[in-house]
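re: ur question from yesterday

yeah so i grabbed the chain u mentioned. its 141 aa long if i counted rite. heres the sequnce exactly as i have it in my notes:
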Amino acid sequence: MAERIVIIDGQGGGLGRQLVSELKKALPELQLTAVGTNSLATAAMLKAGADHCATGENAVLVAARQAGYILGPLGIVIADALLGEITPAMAVAVAQSPAKKILLPVNQCGNLVVGVADSSYGKLIAEAVEALRQSCTGEGC
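ran it thru and got these C-alpha cells back, copy pasting raw so excuse formatting
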C-alpha cells in the first residue's frame, strides 16, 4: 500500500501550493492529500493539483494519524504559529504522528530557526521534494 503524503499549510496556502505543484512535477505518481488550516489555503493547494483536500483542525488531526509523510512549514508543529492558525491540538497531532516529517524552516510569525541558511521558498521546496524523492526511493511510497 502506498504511503499517504500529506501537505499541511495555512494563511494563504502559498507554500503548500508550491509544494504540491513541485511534487506533482517531480513525482507525478504520488497521491497528495492537502490539508489547509483555512479554506483559502486548501483552495490554493487544490488548484495546484492536490488529489485530496480537507480543511480545519479535525482534518489535520485525522490526516496526521493516517500520514506516511507530512510536509509543510516548521510552524505546523508549534502551537499558535502561522499567526495563530495552528491550534495546540494540531501541533501535538503533527508532532506525535508516526509519519516522517519534512518541515521547511520558514522564519516568520515570531519563530526563528538558527543554524540554517536563509533560503528562498523555491530552494526550500526543491530540497523538500528531493528529500521525499530520496526517502520514497529507499522505502517506496
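noticed a couple things. The chain has a mean pLDDT of 90. also The chain has six helices and five strands.
anyway ttyl
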